[in-house]
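Hi again,

Forgot to attach this to my earlier email, sorry! This is the prediction with 3,4-dihydroxyphenylalanine bound. I've pasted everything inline since the attachment limit keeps bouncing my files.
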Amino acid sequence: MSNSDLKQMQTLAALGVTSAAQVKSLFGELRAQFDAQTAKASDEDLWKALRDGWLGRKSGVLTLVTDNWLKPSSPELKRAVGASLNELRTHVNAHIEARRVAIEAGTEMAAAAKERVDLSLPGVIRPIGSHHLIREVFQEIEDIFFSIGFSVVEGPEIETPYYNFEALNIPEHHPVRDDMDTFYLDVPKGEPGLLLRTHTSPVQIHTMERRDPPVRVIVPGKVYRRDNPDATHSFMFHQIEGLAVDCDITFCDFTGTIDYFVKQFFGEGVKTRFRPSYFPFTEPSVEFDASCVFCGGSGTARTGGTCGKCKGAGWIELFGAGMVDPTVYGFVNYHPAKVSGFAFGIGIDRLAMLKYGIDDIQVFFQNDVRFLEQFP
Ligand code: DAH
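Structure tokens for the complex follow:
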């Protein structure tokens, strides 16, 4: 059908329309065409074509109907044509607007559907962290000493030789410094030397400088030595220092306290013993042992044969300790004749290895989750 065949391009006379009834049916046809096209206008582009096709000023259907049907119509039909045209115009206007609203809402819904949060999707599961085993062992040990009246103090990891050595009765050239071959910091010439502390013992001095007796403290922290890494050595490891000083502390208080701690930590069945040892800042000095936690002190492995952990001795070395050497009191202005006390230095990594059956200290520092997650 060419454009000029369209009925709205011709006059009513040309179409042979002479009665009001014919006018009505003609408008009915047009309206049916409009409704069919409107139903198909499903997106914005189709809707614009619909709007221009029907309402366009120059050649929209309504304009053509006005020009070709209404204006040239015979006076008898004019009324009927006018009324039908008005009716059609209202219908077209209303439906084109309704269509626009529907299309817009549809686009919004589509956009909303795209952005909708799908609550059924599994979320991102973030693994929950836990304390490192070393941190947990620190806590266990701290709790045991809290229960008998000790409190926690901390000290610097960078020390002066005075605190790390001299005030602990380790003068320069003393052979025990060889065991503590350590990391010195580069300092400008003429400035006092600095080093990474080799033990937590310097905090004994800091504490006694600041407080009068009685003192009952433990000192958790990191220490550094120039050791080559192997299964039992690391250039950084952890200690808890202990110090108790008062006017009447005896050797019995000392061994009783250590025995209490060891039993709390490893279990009531574990026995302790001490052997003479040497530390410049304690006199007498001892080394504490516990009955082997692997073979129950028998020296024989559960599977028969010699226990590999204590090498058949039935005892395992735990840590060094002793009664504070009176010389140390001289460095902190305590009266050596009026006070007495004991000190100890526990290697945390070693104790954790013994308690949890770990045979390589390096696993503490490698951050391998397969190891870490075994101790949630
Ligand atoms: N500071 C010593 C070390 O790291 C350990 C130690 C031994 C500390 C005896 C003490 C002690 O307080 O009394 O090897």
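The chain is about 40% helix and 15% strand. Residues 75-115 form the longest helix (41 residues).

That should be everything now.

G.
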